[in-house]
Write a structure and sequence with these properties.
The protein is of the alpha/beta class. It has ten helices and ten strands. The chain has a ten-stranded mixed β-sheet, sandwiched between helices. The protein is elongated and about 75 Å long. The relative contact order is 0.15.
Length: 291
């Protein structure tokens, strides 16, 4: 049986956008959808409304959030199998635990009580940094969220942490019927530049050729297993986060890898993934790789 796509809901506009995205994703991949609400989120992120009822307000609110989210999902696509559950724990613990039995975890970019100007909520950041399964943070314009931009972008890094990300990205492109753009950023250190105009391009050319070779190596197996997916390779000079942020403007999904170090319990995100989660103009998928 396929593992479900898990989406965290808290009643915020951001989480409703995540539900919509997750319904479409579940339909593309033929997966069941599981909605989860952490009933103690308000303890950490703000106050809950006062409800007139004989039952605890927390219980009533949790049931309402799950029921309304499930109804929204069914209205969006009745063919997707939807279930939901309110769980008595904080949001990060719930979503990390759910991730052990999920195809992926989907979150909104901000929680219900977080400041409007906040780039990324603390829950989404913590889950993306620690989950053992892929985590998708739904952000960006409606066009980007709905995949109208028509392509999946994957950032290819320096190490094997990107292999899982490439496989994930290829499968996403196949499911969406769109092209995959694989991007490798490179930079030529300043000390390698030479003064003579006829030699100035040599160091840069060597770095660009190395980046192109890295792309070929990273894509060889995954792309070979999915020959019907059109793959566009781009090696671009510049800082990786800037290159990928620029690419996110015209993407339906931006995919990056993250190394999970055995025995490490803190946040495990590099500078690039951290910047993309805060500033990407499209949804971001963080795909973990164990060391």
């Amino acid at each position: 049986m396929e593992l479900p796509l898990v989406v965290g809901v808290d009643g915020s506009d951001s989480s409703l956008e995540a539900v919509d995205w997750a319904v479409d994703e579940a339909a593309r991949l033929g997966l069941p959808l599981r909605l989860v609400h952490a009933s103690l989120w308000e303890r950490y992120e703000g106050s809950r409304p006062s409800l007139s009822t004989d039952r605890p307000a927390e219980e009533v609110l949790a049931e309402h959030i799950i029921a309304s989210g499930a109804e929204r999902a069914r209205l969006r696509n009745p063919e997707v199998k939807v279930s939901g559950e309110a769980l008595p724990d904080d949001a990060v613990s719930v979503l990390l635990r759910e991730g052990h039995d999920a195809s992926a975890v989907v979150t909104g970019a901000r929680g219900r009580s977080e400041l409007a100007g906040l780039l990324l909520g603390s829950v989404s950041l913590a889950v993306a940094a620690r989950a053992v399964c892929p985590v998708i943070v739904v952000r960006g314009s409606e066009q980007n969220r709905q995949g109208a931009r028509g392509r999946v972008v994957v950032g290819v890094g320096d190490s094997t942490e990107g292999s899982g990300a490439v496989r994930f990205a290829v499968r996403e492109a196949e499911a969406r019927g769109c092209a995959l753009e694989a991007v490798r950023a490179w930079r030529c250190p300043a000390h390698e530049h030479v003064d003579h105009p006829f030699l100035a391009e040599e160091p840069a050319r060597a770095h660009e050729e190395r980046a192109s070779a890295d792309l070929d190596d990273a894509l060889r197996e995954a792309a070979g297993d999915h020959p019907e997916v059109e793959v566009v390779r781009r090696s671009v000079e510049g800082p990786a986060q800037k290159v990928l942020l620029d690419a996110s403007a015209d993407a339906g999904l931006l995919v990056v890898g993250a190394l999970r170090q055995h025995g490490h319990v803190g946040l495990q995100l590099g500078r690039v993934a951290h910047a993309l989660l805060h500033h990407s103009r499209s949804p971001v998928a963080v795909v973990p790789h164990q060391d």
